Amino acid sequence: MSEKLIGGCNCGRIRYRLTQQPLIVHCCHCSWCQRETGAAFAVNALVETSSVINEGDQVVLIDTPSESGKGQKIARCPECQVAVWSHYAGFGENVSFIRVGTLDQPTQTPPDVHIFTESKQPWFQLPADTPSFGKYYSTRQVWSEESMLRLKKLRPTQ
User: Fold this and answer.
1) Which terminus of the chain is less hemmed in, N or C, by CB atoms within 10 Å?
2) Residue 158 above 80 pLDDT?
3) Domain extents in the chain
């Protein structure tokens, strides 16, 4: 990895580093992410949970509802309550959705794709050079071959 991806919460009790580059970076414009973050969108870097090395205190996992009805677990600092990553039911706890804003250098991790743009704020202009989708997308069509191989290793055999 050419650049270290290191981050943490506001109070400093949670410090983490990523040992791999993200599988993909989502900028989600769904109304649930807007409500949850209090912002126009959420930017999440998806990475294997085994690649997230927590060098600080233990996070608190909070079960929260999601639009899918399957819920998510949000990892928060026990002191300042900043959300540092999440686990969504579709990927389980094998994948962490790192909140890009908690990285020390979030500019290193721009969105690869904009999703759920049908509910984006009308004043936000989507960048012309980044793929965007009204809802979700086909992973096979958007993810790199390397990320698809990494993802395949994470899926439990049925």
Assistant:
1) C
2) no
3) 5-150
CB 115 within 8 A of CB 135: yes
Residue 120 tokens read as: 């984006």
Q: How far is CA 43 from the centre of its chain?
A: 6
Cα–Cα–Cα angle for 23, 26, 32, nearest 5°? 135
The residue that leads in pLDDT, 67 or 130, is 130
Per-residue model confidence as pLDDT tens digits over 132-153: 999 999 999 999 999 999 998 8
Q: Which residues contact 32 (CB under 8 A, 6 or more apart)?
A: 66, 67
Can you list the positions of beta strands (E) in 20-112? 24-28, 42-48, 52-54, 60-64, 72-76, 83-88, 95-99
- The pLDDT tens digits of the residues spanning 55-70 come to 999 999 999 877 777 7
Residue 135 and residue 118 in contact, taking contact as beta carbons nearer than 8 Å: yes
Strand partners, 46: 24, 97
Two structure tokens written together for 127? 């960048």
**Per the structure block, which two tokens stand in for 56?**
């600080």
